[in-house]
Write a sequence for this structure.
């Protein structure tokens, strides 16, 4: 989760969003415009932000006149605030805001009733940020809808199957049901699972559209053999190492009906070349691993520390690796190049023999 909250002022962030999630590895944290800032103080689990207009007549340290002042990782550590913590803004007065580490998982439904779509509430912004890095409800809804429509249209055009004709559907790594909420629960038996306990709890409490389960860190799941007609996993394989990917491919094959479909994203080598080519040493490290490790690179970057388990890192693989390994379990119907899909990742569409 890099660049999580850049360029929000303290006042607009607090008033609009009510809370934020500390970025993993405490990178890009809480960059607050200095012309809104008078001072910061902290104590365990609490940061006090005093907000006000800084004029030229005010006596202030020279650093306050620079563009951006981050609440630094050091300040967060002194306040005993950790990556993945849920933070809450509290208005103390017209000019003071308190930022505290607190469990906002209580009363999740009440937090999400600001507006609804099709009668279903939208997750609170801090929960959205856990998955998208940007606490924006409209962007969240639009990206989920666009993802659903892309899956629907591509499957229809490429293999002439209508998603509405499939009964049992699993969103593997559903988050807070960003995509699953776009399926018609009157036409489908919807299921979702995810490692993020707050997201699953919110789904269970707020969304009467399907069945949600917390987990699983590794196979075996509790789903029956040959149960689903469609499984989709968006930004899941992109975070698993080689062995874990193989285990989940095997498990998906167990719970999928014969003829059923799997739609999964991955980071292909064309994704690396197209979108990471300006990433310097990180790019070179990936390319080196792809050339040496059988076309598979697993990078331990702690990008989701505090939000997901430690094994949840970032993986990249070439098309040959995908073709050779995934075809052990499924017929590969089509591999889509990087940039076609909504989130720019590669997609593999597979069918159970």
């Amino acid at each position: 989760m890099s660049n999580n909250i850049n360029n929000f002022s303290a006042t607009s962030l607090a008033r609009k969003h009510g809370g934020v999630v500390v970025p993993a590895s405490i990178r890009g944290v809480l960059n607050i415009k200095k012309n809104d800032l008078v001072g910061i103080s902290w104590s365990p689990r609490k940061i006090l932000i005093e907000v006000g207009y800084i004029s030229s007549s005010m006596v202030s340290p020279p650093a306050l006149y620079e563009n951006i002042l981050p609440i630094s990782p050091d300040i967060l550590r002194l306040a005993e605030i950790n990556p993945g913590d849920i933070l809450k803004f509290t208005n103390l007065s017209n000019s003071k805001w308190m930022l505290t580490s607190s469990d906002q998982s209580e009363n999740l439904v009440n937090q999400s009733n600001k507006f609804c779509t099709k009668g279903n509430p939208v997750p609170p912004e801090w929960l959205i940020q856990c998955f998208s890095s940007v606490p924006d409800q409209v962007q969240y809804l639009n990206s989920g809808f666009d993802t659903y429509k892309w899956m629907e249209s591509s499957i229809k055009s490429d293999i002439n199957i209508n998603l509405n004709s499939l009964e049992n559907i699993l969103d593997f790594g559903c988050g807070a049901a960003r995509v699953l909420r776009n399926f018609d629960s009157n036409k489908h038996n919807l299921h979702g699972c995810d490692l993020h306990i707050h997201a699953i709890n919110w789904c269970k409490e707020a969304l009467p559209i399907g069945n949600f389960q917390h987990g699983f860190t590794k196979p075996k799941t509790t789903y029956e053999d040959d149960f689903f007609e469609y499984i989709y996993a968006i930004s899941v394989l992109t975070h698993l190492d080689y062995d874990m990917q193989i285990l989940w491919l095997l498990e998906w094959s167990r719970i999928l009906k014969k003829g059923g479909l799997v739609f999964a994203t991955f980071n292909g080598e064309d994704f690396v070349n197209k979108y990471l080519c300006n990433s310097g040493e990180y790019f070179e490290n990936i390319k080196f691993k792809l050339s040496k490790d059988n076309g598979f690179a697993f990078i331990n970057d702690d990008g989701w520390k505090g939000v997901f388990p430690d094994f949840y890192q970032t993986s990249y693989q070439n098309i040959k690796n995908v073709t050779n390994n995934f075809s052990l379990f499924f017929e590969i119907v089509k591999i889509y190049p990087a940039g076609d899909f909504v989130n720019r990742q590669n997609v593999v569409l597979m069918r159970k023999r």
Remarks:
- The longest strand covers residues 256-266.
